[in-house]
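4.2 Preliminary Data

To establish feasibility before requesting continued support, the project team ran the inverse folding procedure on a target of 78 residues. The structure was first converted into the token representation described in Section 3, and no sequence information of any kind was made available to the design step. The complete token record follows.
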């Protein structure tokens, strides 16, 4: 996904990525990314936890207001 995000950015489309896999995300260097300690399949929040999901999504989308590239942002979500 990070490679696709970089290609979209070159085309003028801003992107942001949310991931639970820090190692792979850092390796592909997406233009903007948030990372969580949540489990696979719950990247934006635990099932049924709409407040957590809103926090992750809002923080991720807020990165679009900043020019890329940005260092990945680690969110304190578990």
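Position-by-position output of the design step:
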């Amino acid at each position: 996904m990070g490679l696709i995000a970089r290609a979209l950015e070159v085309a003028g489309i801003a992107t942001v990525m949310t991931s639970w896999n820090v190692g792979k995300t850092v390796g592909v260097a997406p233009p903007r990314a948030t990372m969580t300690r949540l489990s696979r399949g719950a990247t934006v929040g635990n099932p049924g936890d709409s407040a957590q999901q809103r926090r992750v999504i809002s923080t991720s989308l807020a990165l679009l207001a900043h020019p890329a590239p940005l260092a990945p942002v680690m969110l304190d979500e578990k």
